[in-house]
Structure formats: C-alpha cells, structure tokens
Amino acid sequence: VFALIVFACLVGEGYTNLPTSSKLFCIFNQNEDACRYGIGIGVLAFLACIFFFMVDIYFPQISNTTDRKYLVLADLAFSGLWTFLWFVGFCFLTNQWAWTQADHVRVGADSARAAITFSFFSIFSWVSAAW
C-alpha cells in the first residue's frame, strides 16, 4: 500500500512546470532521477508484493521442500534488498526536497511530502516482512 501511495503521488503531482515555461520537471529540485527512482521502486515493490502474495496463497500446495525453501529465501532476500532501497529512496527524496526552491513548487508540495513520508514508512514495513 505504501509503495502504491509513493508511486501515485509522484506520478500524479510529481512533475510541474514554471509559469513561464510549458516544460515539465520533477518537483524534487528539478532532478528527474529523484522522481524516476521513487516511481521505479514503488512500481517494482507493488508488483513484487502481488507476486509474493500469490506465492503465499499457493504455498501449502507446494510439496517439494526444496522449492519451499528457495521461495522463503527469495522472499527474505527481496525484503532485505527492498528495505535498503527504500532507505536510499527516503534519503534521496528528502535530500532533493531540502534543496528544492519554494518558488518552483506551486502545486505538488503535499504530494512530495507524502511520497517522502510513505517511503519512510515503507522501510519499516519491509523490515517487518524480512523479520
């Protein structure tokens, strides 16, 4: 859910333009990589959650213990990796937001703050998934 919120905030209001120009730019210090990173990990996290949810549904039907072991280890490794990636994303978005000039952001400031907040919450949700 947190990944979906981050993705939606960045896609919905993560790009804006100046009144004097029609060119869109990322509201995080006009750094396109910040928006791309947040959108990328949000989408991949959401898709991975769907995949591992489906694995959890079919897990009792898997009779091979080796396959079960590898699925559990894949879930653990992915959760650990995504914990780190969300931490990097939180730090990156927070840093870019701190350097953003207030006069460049007329619309989307609340979405930017929400993306930062829910990327922070995502760290703890992925830690709990790894635990």
UniProtKB/TrEMBL annotation:
Primary residence: membrane
Bilayer topology: Multi-pass membrane protein
GO cellular component, one term: synaptic vesicle membrane
MARVEL domain span: 1-131
Annotated PROSITE patterns: MARVEL
Cleavable signal peptide: 1-16
TM spans (from-to): 38-59, 71-99, 111-129
Compartments in which it is found: Membrane
Keyword terms, alphabetized: Membrane, Signal, Transmembrane, Transmembrane helix
InterPro entries on file: Marvel, Synaptogyrin
PANTHER family assigned to the protein according to its UniProt record, in alphabetical order: SYNAPTOGYRIN, SYNAPTOGYRIN-2 LIKE PROTEIN-RELATED
Family: Belongs to the synaptogyrin family.
Record's protein name: SNG2 protein
